[in-house]
Specification:
Layout lengths: L1 H20 L20 E11 L10 E3 L6 E3 L25 E4 L5 E7 L3 E8 L8 E4 L25 E6 L5 E7 L10 E7 L7 E10 L5 H8 L12 E5 L5 E5 L3 E4 L20 E4 L4 E8 L6 E5 L4 E6 L2 E8 L1 E4 L4 E7 L6 E7 L9 E7 L20 E4 L9 E4 L18 E12 L5 E5 L2 E3 L28 E3 L2 E4 L4 E7 L9 E5 L4 E7 L17 E2 L10 E2 L19 E2 L1 E4 L4 E7 L4 E7 L2 H5 L3 E6 L50 H34 L1
Bound molecules: copper (II) ion.
Length: 709
């Protein structure tokens, strides 16, 4: 009898465990994601992540572009049935095949439209064969749900092949956002899509969404990484690492790109600018006399683009989802992770006009093209020409990563005006951080990304939800002024702190501008500083009129050159109008000052949004009011490494990538428990034993009593 009771008890436990691990069922309608109902309080959206190939209609039907008519046909189809360009992932039209990883087999993924204060559930199903994935909703602050931020090994474990995960959150603010993979280098695989949050009212204007991407038609970033080794950086052959000189004198220090895409379509050019593919492009239809809102998303993983429409002025009305005082411009610059909304008046002759996403590359042409087509115009390529900028006819360009450029009037990021004021430095406890950003020469001549000389090493657990298992925590006292370290590092802030971070593109290797993204926040950009004109970007000293550096590396112990700037007293900043963004371009050799109030408890990733740079460790974490972070939902997935107990201390460690000698390993002896945890577990064990004893005694007595009758 006692055995039966025990068996039932174990059975119950087993059942409870099974119920807990069965994933939420996927309903049949999961291939039709898209727009939520305006009136609904809740909304379910579905994303399937799977492998796919460009220039295919189905798995077996390879598509080609006919040179003479520019239309699509299936190879070997002698009846020449035209293929709808929207049925094919075209990319740059190159016949070269490479693997893509896509949301719902489209590139970009489906545009998701939700409403303010709607409870959104995005069900993600990983249908890949071999790789994990996570989805980050870029710009959504995830207030109260920090574990839904989608940053792999920061806020969650990757979703494994065959697994599902449901992102449940409530967007609080309207705006243009996007979703993308935040695992490894999967943005370069095509895992990007628009995420639009609208107010619950009808659109004032008809809208178009424009997702910009950069693309390599031969290899993904992972493959490019592999050909140099994950830690490699410099390739003497010029590929896969391509540090290309730009016309502003800085470099796009990143990996090889072949083309740019607008909504997944683009054309390939040779270095002389000759068009190599005649890909059908994205067409944005307009009617003469009407105005349209365009939502532009910087979904590139490496390149910065300059967006313009021939013969049309752009009225910029929002930056990173935040309203701004409208700016009339000829074009704007947008880096990976940024978004801009603009309005155009379709006030030109009925015709086709080029939409251009140009890059600043000096010797290569990666321009992305799309077509603005007026109703009544022929279905042909535009013949319009790009605006010529001259001394007499200066072009107005918004969000330049430099202050001046020949024949341009630059409106810099801090000259964009917000409609909400920034916090003053004395409106709470003020915390000021100095963060140098760039690349550093580590051991074996390998270059690593760093912030303050520390290359971020993400843990092998979800740091937010398994904080006690985070290893390789930096011992900053050992990362002395000129020393480079590779470890896990966070900035600590408390609820209510007014946080100011001064990012500097300082030090020896500051060749490139970096789009800095802060998760969990929309911050105010108080000031952007640029390198002096004609100064060499590799000269560490040119910034010294603004900051003081202890040595040429500028890793730690940084400060303002003028001490009176400390404590939030930078002269000339306009708190009432400082723009609000979640991603800001730190100019090569310049600085950016951002400020926000720490009112969103969580563990937030701060990193360069160029995927390759983040992979190289260019980031850190914001440990925001840790004790106030709410507990994750019950059953939230965990993950961890499972080395043999002697792994980390034995010579076997030699076969792991070698860490910098200054790295500290927080736990080398496996899982350790705090005193509280120990007594908690001891109590629970005691309770279970006592319960079993009572049940056994009760059963025994019952057996005896039944025998007596
Ligand atoms: Cu970067």
């Amino acid at each position: 009898m006692e055995r039966t009771t025990m068996g039932a008890y174990i059975g119950q436990l087993y059942l409870i465990t099974i119920i807990a691990i069965v994933p939420e069922a996927i309903s049949d309608g999961h291939t039709n994601p898209g727009t939520c109902d305006m009136g609904a309080s809740k909304c379910d959206l579905y994303l399937d992540v799977s492998l796919w190939l460009p220039m295919r209609r189905n798995y077996g039907e390879k598509v080609y572009i006919n040179d003479t008519d520019g239309r699509l046909y299936v190879h070997g189809d002698e009846s020449y049935n035209q293929i709808d360009p929207d049925d094919v992932v075209l990319a740059d039209g190159s016949p070269r095949e490479r693997t893509l990883t896509l949301f719902n087999k489209t590139m970009p993924g489906p545009t998701l439209i939700v409403y303010v204060n709607q409870e959104v559930k995005v069900h993600v199903r990983n249908q890949m064969l071999s790789d994990g994935v996570t989805v980050h909703f870029h710009g959504i602050e995830m207030r109260g749900t920090p574990w839904m931020d989608g940053a792999a090994f920061v806020t969650q474990c990757p979703i494994l092949p065959g697994q599902t995960f449901t992102y449940k959150f409530t967007p609080k603010r309207k705006g243009t956002y996007f979703y993308h993979s935040h695992t490894g280098a999967q943005m370069s695989m095509g895992l990007v899509g628009a995420f639009i949050v609208k107010e619950r009212k009808l659109d004032e204007l008809e809208e178009h969404v424009m997702v910009l991407q950069d693309y390599n038609n031969a290899q993904s970033s992972d493959e490019l990484f592999a050909s140099t080794g994950l830690l490699g950086f410099i390739s003497t052959e010029g590929e896969p690492f391509a540090s290309e000189l730009r016309t502003d004198g800085s470099y796009s220090a990143s990996i090889k790109i072949t083309s740019s895409l607008i909504n997944g379509k683009g054309r390939l050019f040779d270095p002389q600018g000759n068009q190599l593919t005649n890909t059908p492009l994205t067409v944005f239809p307009v009617k003469q006399g009407q105005a349209y809102r365009f939502r532009v998303i910087g979904g590139a993983y490496s390149l910065q683009h300059k967006v313009s429409i021939d013969n049309h002025k752009l009225k910029l009305v929002a930056a990173d989802g935040n309203d701004i005082d409208p700016i009339i411009a000829d074009s704007f610059m947008i880096h990976s992770g940024e978004r801009f909304d603009f309005i155009i008046d379709a006030n030109q002759t009925v015709d086709n006009y080029w939409i251009r996403a140009e890059t600043l590359q000096k010797y290569t042409n990666y321009t992305g093209f799309a077509i603005l087509r007026y109703e009544g115009a022929e279905s042909i390529d535009p013949t319009s020409s790009v605006q010529q900028c001259s001394m007499e006819n200066m072009c107005t360009v918004v969000n330049c990563p430099f202050e001046t450029y020949p024949n341009w009037t630059c409106i810099t990021t801090d000259q964009i005006h917000s409609t909400t004021p920034a916090p003053t430095h004395n409106s709470g406890s003020f915390k000021e951080f100095f963060v140098s950003v760039g690349f550093a020469q580590a051991e074996n001549n390998v270059f690593m990304g760093h912030m303050n000389g520390i290359s971020l090493k993400l843990p092998s657990v979800s740091a937010l939800t398994q904080p006690k298992e985070v290893t390789d925590i930096c011992d900053e006292s050992k990362c002395a002024a000129g020393k480079f370290c590779r470890c896990y590092r966070s900035l600590e802030v408390n609820f209510g702190d007014v946080v100011q971070i001064n990012f500097f593109s300082a030090g020896k290797y500051n060749l490139a501008s970096h789009p800095i993204h802060i998760h969990g926040y929309s911050f105010h950009v108080l000031k952007v500083g640029y390198r002096q004109e004609n100064s060499s970007v590799v000269n560490a000293q040119f910034l010294n009129q603004y900051i003081s550096c202890p040595n040429e590396f500028c890793y730690r112990n940084l400060g303002w050159a003028n001490q009176s700037w400390k404590g939030g007293n930078i002269p000339g900043i306009d708190l009432d109008r400082a723009p609000r963004k979640d991603t800001v371009t730190l100019p090569a050799g310049g600085y950016v000052v951002v400020r926000f109030v720490a009112d969103n408890p969580g563990l937030w990733y701060i990193h360069c949004h160029q995927e390759y740079h983040a992979q190289k460790g260019l980031g850190l974490l914001l440990n925001d009011s840790f004790s106030a972070i709410p507990a994750p939902p019950e059953g939230f997935p965990e993950c961890r490494s499972f080395p043999p107990p002697d792994w980390l201390t034995s010579d076997k460690r030699e076969s792991l990538p070698k860490d910098d000698e200054n790295t500290t390993v927080a736990r080398t002896d496996g899982r350790t428990f705090t005193e509280e945890e120990f007594w908690g577990m001891f109590g629970a064990l005691l309770f279970v034993i006592l319960l079993q004893f009572i049940i056994s005694v009760w059963c025994l007595r019952k057996t005896k009593s039944s025998v007596s009758f």
